[in-house]
């Protein structure tokens, strides 16, 4: 039996967008809950991740909208979402690749605890560390669309051989990754898109772009006499209703004519699968500057339904992003920490540089690696009662004047007393954070 570890939450609840059925469309069915159940247990190979950003995909809504079949496979209420970027909170006993506090990104398989929840349980196969220079909002886009593009192209071309690849639909989430990946592998890339996205596809490296709103794609390709090593059709999406007649039409149009290669052709449907090795390769291409996430729009967590509304229009250029929830359990995280842990408290600084400056004077400060690295965790001083903001910085309220005096002496040595700190004998003391710092 696999060893299991609790999530160490006092409440075992979290914020999450939940659906019980999606008959009217997922965007109309998901409801925001502040007390949704957290993933209850960690297996020895599991990674508990706090989600800072997620990227919606068509499969997120197509699967729940299957109705009874979906409910048989995933118990409800459930959270949608597969793609994520966040911070490792806890690991199973057999996990030695990732450390607590490390920022990661990737993809989870469809399950009850999707990435529109505050916490998810990731697997090694669908998780890699986030490199410097790749923001969390960009990183969360890589999982499904990046893996789909990579797995539909990389195994079928010869690197550096100049293979001709046609990507039908180059401006969506998968298409934008596909164009870049194919170019990075040394392919000659032709793609199709609407007129407004032609320049986008060219900027991503496409050698030839066909505006399907003005020209017949098949006729244009036939006239050019191009022979393609690979055809990738991004208009057939996971979960779409595709009849045999439609498949036959797609095959005859895209693969059989001589201008697409003729002869022995085959059609394969790519079912994206988690692969740590593939994610590592994608990360390498990204860090080398050869591939990037194209983000169309970023939505606040409370606006997640709007993200799915836009996704369903099919008009997104690249990927959409939904930020993670700002607060834990509907409260300030500082209040949660003081109430439940009492060992650390968190302060959000105006800039990352101020966090580093503060840490240089206070080695015990632990930087919390959120999206913009402005959060710092500090050990809670003995006798601390509460915290509050002031126009000058942060004020710490102690239970006794003696406790406040002890903190002031330490703060003076670290040059962290703010001007206007209370007089000796008071039960409050300045913490010395810059103006406009806030509890986070």
Describe this structure in words.
It contains 14 helices and 22 strands. Helix 5 (142-153) crosses helix 6. The chain has 440 residues and is of the alpha+beta class. Helices cover 28% and strands 25% of the residues. The chain has helices at 26-29, 58-62, 68-73, 136-139, 142-153, 173-184, 198-203, 217-224, 244-254, 276-287, 304-313, 333-341, 352-361, 401-413; strands spanning 4-6, 13-18, 31-37, 41-43, 46-55, 83-91, 103-107, 119-123, 127-129, 164-168, 188-193, 208-211, 230-233, 295-299, 319-323, 344-348, 366-368, 375-379, 384-389, 394-398, 428-430, 438-439. Strand 11, helix 7 (198-203) and strand 12 form a beta-alpha-beta unit. It has three domains: 4-141 and 293-323, Alpha-Beta Complex (Quinone Oxidoreductase, Chain A, domain 1); 146-260, 3-Layer(aba) Sandwich (Rossmann fold); 333-439, no CATH class. Residues 424-440 have a biased composition (Polar residues). It holds the Pfam family ADH_N.
